Each structure stands twice: as structure tokens, then as C-alpha cells.
Amino acid sequence: MTEENNSTNSQYGTGYNSGRYPYYYGQGGRLVLVDSALEAVNRGSTTIGIKTPEFALITSHIKPTLPLVDPNEKIFLIDKHIGATGAGYIADIEQLIEEIRLQAQKHRLSYESPIDVKSIAKHLSTYLHNYTIYAVRPQAASIIIAGNDETGIQLYQVDPSGTYLKGNGFAIGYASDTAIEVIQKEYSKDLTFDNALELAKKAIEKSIGDKPRVESGIVTKKGFSKLS
Amino acid sequence: MTEENNSTNSQYGTGYNSGRYPYYYGQGGRLVLVDSALEAVNRGSTTIGIKTPEFALITSHIKPTLPLVDPNEKIFLIDKHIGATGAGYIADIEQLIEEIRLQAQKHRLSYESPIDVKSIAKHLSTYLHNYTIYAVRPQAASIIIAGNDETGIQLYQVDPSGTYLKGNGFAIGYASDTAIEVIQKEYSKDLTFDNALELAKKAIEKSIGDKPRVESGIVTKKGFSKLS
Amino acid sequence: MTEENNSTNSQYGTGYNSGRYPYYYGQGGRLVLVDSALEAVNRGSTTIGIKTPEFALITSHIKPTLPLVDPNEKIFLIDKHIGATGAGYIADIEQLIEEIRLQAQKHRLSYESPIDVKSIAKHLSTYLHNYTIYAVRPQAASIIIAGNDETGIQLYQVDPSGTYLKGNGFAIGYASDTAIEVIQKEYSKDLTFDNALELAKKAIEKSIGDKPRVESGIVTKKGFSKLS
Amino acid sequence: MTEENNSTNSQYGTGYNSGRYPYYYGQGGRLVLVDSALEAVNRGSTTIGIKTPEFALITSHIKPTLPLVDPNEKIFLIDKHIGATGAGYIADIEQLIEEIRLQAQKHRLSYESPIDVKSIAKHLSTYLHNYTIYAVRPQAASIIIAGNDETGIQLYQVDPSGTYLKGNGFAIGYASDTAIEVIQKEYSKDLTFDNALELAKKAIEKSIGDKPRVESGIVTKKGFSKLS
Amino acid sequence: MTEENNSTNSQYGTGYNSGRYPYYYGQGGRLVLVDSALEAVNRGSTTIGIKTPEFALITSHIKPTLPLVDPNEKIFLIDKHIGATGAGYIADIEQLIEEIRLQAQKHRLSYESPIDVKSIAKHLSTYLHNYTIYAVRPQAASIIIAGNDETGIQLYQVDPSGTYLKGNGFAIGYASDTAIEVIQKEYSKDLTFDNALELAKKAIEKSIGDKPRVESGIVTKKGFSKLS
Amino acid sequence: MTEENNSTNSQYGTGYNSGRYPYYYGQGGRLVLVDSALEAVNRGSTTIGIKTPEFALITSHIKPTLPLVDPNEKIFLIDKHIGATGAGYIADIEQLIEEIRLQAQKHRLSYESPIDVKSIAKHLSTYLHNYTIYAVRPQAASIIIAGNDETGIQLYQVDPSGTYLKGNGFAIGYASDTAIEVIQKEYSKDLTFDNALELAKKAIEKSIGDKPRVESGIVTKKGFSKLS
Amino acid sequence: MTEENNSTNSQYGTGYNSGRYPYYYGQGGRLVLVDSALEAVNRGSTTIGIKTPEFALITSHIKPTLPLVDPNEKIFLIDKHIGATGAGYIADIEQLIEEIRLQAQKHRLSYESPIDVKSIAKHLSTYLHNYTIYAVRPQAASIIIAGNDETGIQLYQVDPSGTYLKGNGFAIGYASDTAIEVIQKEYSKDLTFDNALELAKKAIEKSIGDKPRVESGIVTKKGFSKLS
């Protein structure tokens, strides 16, 4: 959110607002509602994005559900060449996914060409940022977007403040600090897809302390597809 | 609501908001108004959904009313191929039922074909989610939707946060923790309709500690009908 | 209001909202403003509805007024085939009565046929429910509607939360717990109109501990009329 | 306001709202803002309405003003056949008088006939009631309306909650409890106009403990006129 | 404001609103914001209006300003036949003066005749009253209007509640209680203009305990003019 | 602001609003938000306006800035014949300057003649006054306007309440009490421009206790120009 | 923000608002929400602007990111001849950058010429100022704008209050007090571009106590370009 703090895994100190400051800001100029939204994100499924020049992988922990309940879909097709995943409140995630799907479709209709990945990330950023300005509820979801466009394979993360980041590896959700450390240690641009998937699973396992069930999607030059 | 918490039967800890956090969020990023709505849902009629490949059953406890008062209808026809039930404040349930009936009709008018069940669930999800963003009252009702479409028999649950779940068995309302355990133990894909109805009644009986009066509906490939 | 509580005569426990919960909901997910509205209803005139297959009677206690003041009309003609009465703040009752009269007229204009009784009850329900969602004042009135349509004689009760109930006997207003017990004991489907009127008066007398003055209306297959 | 309380002269107990209840309602479901408005009405000029089959008299105490200040007009012509008076904040009274004058004119323009007295009372009722639903200030004025129409001489009182009453005798404003008792004791349908005027003056004198200066208006079959 | 209190010079007792009553009303149904506005008026320049059948005089104390600052204009031409003055916040006074000037012009344009004085007073009354109903700031200014029309010379006072008074003598602003007493003692209908001006100055001098500098305006059958 | 207080350099006593009074007004009917705005003005640059029949000078202290930062422009051209300066929050000053520049341009377009100085002052007054009525932030800037029109050289001051003053000498901003005293002592209508500039500098020096850097502008019959 | 305080690096004393003052203003007329926004800016990346007659350099510290995360772009192309950088919340910075890019494009479309640098700074000022007037969140970002137009090379800083400054050297963000001191000591108009870049890096190093990674952009008579 703040520049000095471009990991979303920061501690949310006191976040305290005992009448001393007016509504939107807390101590030290912190955005108190956004901090609350991030607390919810940090309780979400551990979710990973890994990118090499050849592909981008998005993998999300599927938390155990009640025996007769299907887990929620966590890997979403946005457009042929773009996929996304997220951590936070499910209904907030779904709304954001719908928003960027719509944006991708609008672009195709207006320009008869696929939207570039950065435009999707920026659009989501603006959409989320708007909720931080008025007396409404900032959305409690961080989103990882993976896509392929003329500039190659792309990986973005967008958080509730509207901040977006580009990179080769992201982790959001529960214990994402732990997850990202695992990925940092073993990441290399030469990872094969199988290596990357193993790495993502390992990172989630370390975070949750248990054999994870995961859902994954991959984007290559050929486009995005979910893994079964 | 949150991913780590995709049962609606969670404990609602303190839900405390003693001036420390601004309006929409409570401690740990919880949605305080939605948690209140869920408390009301948890005081509602114990209500069950069970699905096999052949049929889906929805059954709701009919609480004893005053001698001369008819119990409220709890099983609702949404469209020929879809039925629904719910737990929570009756007037909130009714409003949601009207909303999805209207949506099913609109779809028929626009596309001259029946709406698929997931679209109904997603529409309700979006409708409920909207109430969590602005300074209005989130609706205090969870809804179970049963339907049949080209992808087969479907069972969904949608809660006040806008989260929707798909599965073979759901329980909402009073002591739904107990009810769902009963169903989990005895559920099998080979259940006959009679088995399923027995199971639903047993689950409700365990929850309320009393012989239940219930209302039920069934959806098969032939469509939805209420049981008399 | 809640399903477990489909009598409006429940105790309004603490209803307490000492800053712990945000605006619309109180402890246990109660609707605090609606509970306040119901407290006002419970201070209103004891009001009775009794239905048999042949007729429906609505009777309301006419509280003693100052010597030179006419008592307020409590039995209202809604349409030829429908009458209504209510308990709560008079101006709130009047507004609701106007609303459903208008709705009955609109139906006649649009469809050239009388509106069915359930549609009136549902319309009033939706109208009242709307006041519970936004930062306005929920109306403090419960309404009993008696009517005759193609499905026969009908009796409904609608309360400030928007909940509507159908039945053979209702009591709202002051000491309605007592009133409804009297009716439950002596009700039978074979009651003549004279029996029913006696019963209603007896129930009100028990509630208020005094010989009541009442106003009544009756609906039969021939339509609604006020009694003089 | 409430049915059990159709005199506006009730005690306003505690009216207390120490953070326990949200905005519109106080203890026991009382309308706290309306109660405040009524407190202001009870500090207004003692004002009387008396009706017989032959005439209706409205009389309002004209409080002593500073020597060089004309007293405010308290008896208002609404239409040829209708007059009105009020107690409460003068500017609130004036606004309400303008509102019903306008309504009477609109009726003449639309229907080319004089408006009936009850329609004026109901219109004012709806107008006042609206101020009790939203976050605005309920008007602090009670109005007495006297008129003549096809149903004969009519006398109405409307208070800040929007409640309207019909009768033969009303008193509003300062010590109206005392005033109405005087009228009740001596009222008869055979009162001549002179008797009635004497009675009204006597009632006001008892209330204020002093020889009153009054302003009066009379409506007969021939219409309304102010007395000089 | 209230009828029993048609001098604006009343004591503003406690005006207390310690959380007990909601927003608009204070103890005893007082309009707390209007009372605050009146407190500001009572700190304004002592300002006088005197009327005889032949003329009306308006005179306002011009408080000593810093040596190089021109005093604010306090006597305003509204139309050829109407002048006005005021006490309270200068910017509030100016806005109200603009409002009635505009109203006078509109009348000339619509009816090709000068507006009567009472219509100006009523228009200002309605304009001010509106500020007392919604969550805005009631204007902190009382205005004295002097004019001549077909009914003769007229003198009105309008205060922040929207109350308007007609009379032969008014005093508003600082120590207006004292000022009005002086005028009452010596007022006669036969006052010449010179007498009246002397009287106004004397009243202001008594109020402020010092030789006053004043600004004055006079309206006669020939119209309004400021005195130099 | 208030008439008795037409210097803006008044003490802001307690300005206290501990829940006793509603929002806009504080103790004694003070405008609490405007008082806060004036506190900010009183921390701004000491700023002077001096007028003789031949010219008007506006001079503002230019506070020392960081070595590499240009001081903000403090003397603004409004139109050929009008200049202005201000004290308070820079961004508030700039907005007000833009507003009156626009107003001057509109006048030229509509009437093909230069706007008179008083119209500019009144327009600014109305603009600022509007911010004191609604739940927005009153602007924290006082403006001095110097201009020449058919009535000669003009000097005005407008403050956050919307009050405007006309005169020969004004001081606003830090220690303006001290500054205005210096000017009062030495002001004469016969001041040459050089005298006036010396006087303004001297007044600012006394206020800030240091050799001031200033920016100045002058308006004569030939129009407005900034001094280099 | 205030004139006496035209460095943004001031101490934010208590900023305390314990119920004593209404919403927008704190003690001493401080803008409490803007002060909070500035606190966030002061936690942002140390960011420098240096201007000579030949060029302007903008340089921002790129804080170390997680190993696999690309740092956010901090140097932005606004138009061919203008670049910008900022400190504060990234999403707020991005929104402001988009706003001025759009403004530059609109100018090209309307006037077929490049916008001048001051117009961009003023537009951003007005845009930010607007957020300080209403009950929304003032943006937490300060922006440095460098450009070239007919008046030569230009350097501006705009802060959350809407204040804009022009100069030869600016520092915003973390420990900007330290950074600006370094630049003040060594700045000269004869700096070569290499000198300036060294100086900017040195200033940032002093502020953060570490070898900085930076991103830079330069504007010369030929236009703006980012440095690789």
C-alpha cells in the first residue's frame, strides 16, 4: 500500500482510531478501513503466482470444506489470454473478477483486439481505489492476474488500496510471508511448469502446515487454461 | 463468508467494535453488520438441502405456530426447474425469493430459455453483496437453491455476505452444525428420494430436539415440485 | 418477524445497542428499530381477526376518547371485497391503509378485475420491508387484512418488519397474548358470525380488563362491510 | 398519537434515548422527535374548537405582546367554507396553513368544487406524517380545522405525528387539559354561538389564569368568517 | 418564536441536549439551532424600527470600527417603497437582503406592480423557516422591514425561526430589551419624524451605554430613502 | 464576522462544543467551523491593504521559504483594474482568486464593461457564505481586494464567514492587530505611494519582528500592476 | 500548506480533535484529514526534484521490494515535455498521475498545442483541493512535476492540501528534511546533469542511511525522458 511497504504482508499495528482522528485516516496516516480489509485478506486462502518468460502459474489453496460442499472456484478465466485468482472475502473476490471480465469484453468490443494485461491491472486498481475515497466499504480481496500479451507473459497483484504490483512471484492470503520466502529461495527463470507447480504447492504447505489441496491455472503464449 | 470459513455455522466471537474501528469492519476485518445478519440466520428454521445425481431435496423445519396461524411457506417455486428455501427473517427471505423469481422470468423473456441454476445463485450473490458495501442493512437470510439444467441437478447455498456455495448437502438456520453432521454421516449418492427425506427429517430432529414438522420440495430432471 | 418467532407478541428482551453493534442490528442480530416499532404496536388498541370458511371478522377495540372527540375509524374498506384494521400509531396505520387502497385501485385499472387478498398482503409486506433497509423510520403499525377472492375467505396479518401471516385468528395490540388465547380456546370453523363477534369482544375484554367498545367489519362471499 | 393516547395532552415521561436505541424511536417505541414537537405545542397559545350541528367556532388565546407589537393572526381563512387555527411554533403553523390553503385551491382548480373538510384534514395529516419518517424536523404545530361541506359542519384536529381527530370540542396548547375539561362540562349541541364563544373564553381563562384576549372564527352553512 | 414568546429577547435557558434528545429539538421542544442563531442575533447591533401612520423609521447602531474601516451598510433599499435593516451575522443579513430584493424584482416583472410589504415579510419567513427543517445551518439574522403599500405604512420583523411580526415598534440586537422599553414609554402615533429619530437614538444609547452612531432610513407615502 | 466584531482579529474564546450544542453553532451562537477557519487565517502571512484617493496598495509578507523554493505569488491580478491578495491556506486562497477572476471575465463577456469592485467583493462574499450553511468546509482564507472603477479607488476585505468590509486600511494574517495599529497611526489621505509602501513594510516588520520580504501591487486610475 | 509553513516537512503536533471542534478542522484551524494524508506522504519514498536553466531532474528512491517483485514505476511521462514523480500511497499517486495525463491530452485536443507546466500544476492543485472541502478522503500523495515550455524549464511540487510550489529543488517523502538540506548545500545553477544526479542520489542516501536504488527522469528543451 505505502511505498515503503509494498508487500501486503505487513503487520497492522494498532490501527487505532479512538476518536483522535477523523474518519478515513488512523494513526500515522494509515487508511483504517483498508487496513481492516487487508486483515480479512490475510485470513484468506494462501494463494501463489509464479512467472517465468515462458508461462505464469496461479495456484490457490483450496481449504477443506464440509464433506458435502464443493470448494469455491478460485482460479478464474478472465479472457482467452488472462486468468486470475484471489484471497479475501469470496463475494468480494467474485465481484472484482466480474468487473475485470467485463472490462476485457468491453475492450474486445471497442478495439477488436485482446486487452493487455497491464490495462486489466490498472482498471482493477482504479476500481478498488474508488472504494477508499468515499464513505463506502473498501473491498476485502487481493487479486493475482496472470496473462500473456504482446509484451510477453505478465503477472500482477492488486490489493484493496488499489495498489498494483508486477513481478515474478507473489503470495497473498494466510501466512503469505512464509509462502513467499519459499518461492524466493527456489525461484529461477528456468523453472519448468512442473517445477513451478511443485514449488507453489510446497510454499502453500509450509504456510498452512499441512498437505494442501490446490487449484491452479496456467498462461502460456497459447493462452490461459485451468488445470484439472 | 471468508474462505477459511466457508461454513456459515462459525462462531461469531466478540464482533466487537467499541469505537476502535470504523463502521463497516470489526476486529480482524470482520464484516460486523453481516455477522449480525448471520446471527439472525442462525436463529431461523433449521433448513436442509440434499442433492444426488437424480434429484435435489430441500426441506425446512416448520416451527410450531400459534394454533390459528398458518405456518409461513418455506419452500418456494422459482421457475419450472428451480426451487428455493431459506432461513432468517421471513420478510428478508421473501424479498430475496421475489428477486430471483424476477430474474428467472427476465431470462426467459430475453433468451426464450430457462435460466441455469448457477446464474440464479450468482445473481442472488451479487444482489446480497451490494447490501454489504453501502450504509444500508445487509439482508438477514441465507437461501438454498435447488434446480435442474443442462449440467444436471444443482444445489446452491447463498448467505448474507453474498457468498455462494455448491454442494451435495447444506444445512442453515438453528443448530445447523448438528444437522449437517447427521447428513454427512449418512449421505450417499445412491440415496433414494425417500431415504433423503428421512435423512433431512432426522437431521432437523437432532437439531431441534423434537419431532419436526417440515415442508419439502424436490427437483428432478422433470422439474421442481413442492411436496404436500 | 424471525421464523422462530412468528407471533408478534414476543418479549423484547434487552434490545440493547450500547455502541457495541452498528446501526441496524442489535444483540443477536435483532432489528432494533423494528423492535421499537413493535413496542409501539403492543401499546395500540387490542385488535382481532377471526376467519371461518364463510366469513372473516375484524374487530378493534375503540379506546375511550375524550367526551367530545370521535374515536378514530379503525375498520377500513380497502376494496369491495377487502377490509383492514390495525394497531400502532394512527398516522402510520392510515398511511399503510392508503397504500393498499391505492394498490387495489391500480390492480382494477390494470387488469379490470379485483386484486386477490394475498397480493394485497404481499404488497404491504414489501412496502413495510423497505423501511427496514434504509436509514428511515420503520412504520409502527401491524395490519390485519380480511378479504374474499377466488380462493375463498382470507385473513392476513402484516407487521412492521414486513412479515405477513395467514390464518384463522389473529390478535395484535395491547395484551394481544391474552386475547389470542381466548380465541384459540373457543375457535371453531363452525362459528356463526354472532358467535365470532361475541368471541372477539370477549377476547378484547379479557385483554383490557374492561367492557370494550369495538368497531367491526365483516367480509363474506358478498364482499366487505363495516358493522354499525 | 398512539391510539391509547388520542389526546395530545399526555405526559411525556422520560422520552429518554441515552444511546440505547437508535435515532427515531425512544423507550417503549415512542417517537422522540414528535414528542419534542408536542412539548413545543404544549407551550403554545391555548386554542379551542367547538362544534354544534349549526356552526363551528375556533378560538385562540392571543398572548399579550409587547405594547407596540401586533399579535400574530391566529385564525386563518383556508377557503370560503373552511377556517383553521393552531398552537405551536408560529412559523411551523404558518407553513401548514399555507400548505392546506394551496391544497384547497388545487381542488377548486381540478374539480371546480370546494374541497371537503376531511380531505383537508387528511392532506395535512399525510404532510405532517412525512416529516416523521425521514431525518428532518417534524413540525411543531397542532392545527384545528373547522369547515362546512355536504356532510355538514366539521371540526378536526391534526397533530405533529400526522394523527387527525374529528369531534365536537378540542383544546390544544398551554394547559389544554384544563381547557378541555371546562368545555366538556358545559358543552351541549344546543349551544348558541354566543354561548359557545363565552365557553371558549372561559376555558382559556381557566387555563391561563387570567382574562384572555382571544381571536375567533366561525363557520356556518354560509361559510367561514373571522370575528372582529 | 413560540407564541408565548413573541419577543426575540427571551432568555435561552439551558438549551441543553446532552445526548438525551435527537438532533433538532432540545429540552422542552426548543429548536436548539435556532436558539443558537438567536444568541448571535442578540450580540448584533442594536437596531430599531418605529412606525406611525405617516412614516416608518429604521435605525441601526453603527458599531465603532477600526479607524480606517468603513462601517458596514446597515440600512438597505429593497425596492422603491421598501427598506430593511437587520441584526446578526453580517453575511447572513446580506444574504437575506439579497433574497428579498430579488423577490421584489420578480414581483415587478410578473405583475408589473410593486410587491406589498406583507408578501415580502412572508417570503422571508418561508425562506428562513426552510433552514430550520433540514440538517443545514439556520441563518443567524433578524430583519426589520419597513414599507409603504396600498394598506399604508407597514413595519415587520422576521427572526431566524421564520416567525414574522407586525407592529409600530421593534428592537433587535444587543440589549434590545432595554431599547424597546424606551420606545414603548415615549411612542405615540403623533410622533414627528424628528421625534422618532431622536427616540430611536435614545433607545440605542440606553442599550449600549454610549453615544451611538447610527444609520437610518425612512419610508413615507413617497417611498423609501436612506438618511445621510 | 458579527457586527460587534468587525475586525477579524478577535479572540476565539473557548469555541467549545462538547456535545452541548449541535453541529454548526458553538457557545454564544458562534460559528465554530468559521472560527476554526479564522484561526488558520491568523497564522497566515501578515498582509496589508492601504488606500488613498489616488491609489490602493496591497502588500503581503513573503515568508522565508526553503532556499531553492520560490515563494508563492501573493499578489494576484484579477482584471486590468483589480488586484487581490490574501492570508490563510494557500490552496484556499488560490481557489477564491480563481473564482473572482472568473467572475470578472463573465462580467466582461456579458456586459462588455469592467466589473465594479464592490460586485467582486459581494460575489466573493456570497461564495464564501455558502460554505458556512452546509456540512462542508468553510474556506480558510481572508482576501483583500483593491480596484478602481467609476466610483474611484476601492479597497475591500472579505473573510471566511462571507463578511466584506470597505475601508482605507486593512491588515490580515499573523499579528494583524499590531500591523493595523501601525497603519492607523501614520495613515493620511495625502500619503504618496512611496510613503504607503514604507508604511506597509513597517507594519509587517512590527508584526513579525523581523525585516520583511514583501510582494506588492498597486492600483491607480490607470489600472492594477504588480510591483517588481 | 499554510503560508508560514510552505515546507511539507513540518511537525504535525497533536492534530488532536477530541470532540472539541467539529469535523474538518482541528486545533489552531489545522486541516486534520490533510495532516493525516501528509503523515502518509512523509512515510513514502524519498523523492527529489532539481532544476537548472538547462534541465530538470526528478529522482525517486526505489525501496527494496521482495526479491521477485518489480518495483513500482515512480517516474511518469505526463506528456512529451512533462514528467512527474510522487511520494505517498501508490494508488493515490497513480490516480493523480492519470488525472494530469488526461488534462495534458485534453489541452492538446482543444488547443493543438502542448499545455504549459504551470497549468498542469494548477489543475492538480484544484483537483486535490476539492477533496479537502467535502466529506471524502483527501488524497495522500505529493507530486513533483518537471517540464519544459515557452517560459523555460519548470519544476513544481503539489501537496495533498492542493498547495503548489515552484522552485529549483524539492524533496518529499521519508526524511525529506535531511534530503533537502543536502541539496541546498551543493546546488548551483551550473550543475551538469551528472552532478545533479549524483546530488540527488547523495541526498536520498543521507535520508535513508543506505545506498539507494533510484529511478530518474530528465526534462530538457528537447522534452522529457526516463533514464534507464
- Mean pLDDT figure of chain A: 90
Shape of chain A: globular
Helix residue percentage of chain A: 25-40%
Q: What distance lies between the first and last C-alpha atoms of chain A, to the nearest angstrom?
A: 34 Å
Under CATH at level 1, the class of chain A stands as Alpha Beta
Question: What would you give as the CATH superfamily of chain A?
Answer: Aminohydrolase, N-terminal nucleophile (Ntn) domain
Can you describe what's shown?
The structure is a homoheptamer. By secondary structure, chain A is α+β, with helices and mostly antiparallel strands. Chain A has one domain: Aminohydrolase, N-terminal nucleophile (Ntn) domain (Glutamine Phosphoribosylpyrophosphate, subunit 1, domain 1, 4-Layer Sandwich), CATH 3.60.20. Chain A has five helices and eleven strands. In chain A, a hairpin with a 2-residue loop joins strand 10 and strand 11. The first copy, chain A, is globular, with a radius of gyration of 17 Å. At the A-G interface, helix 3, strand 8 and helix 4 of A face helix 1, strand 3 and helix 2 of G.
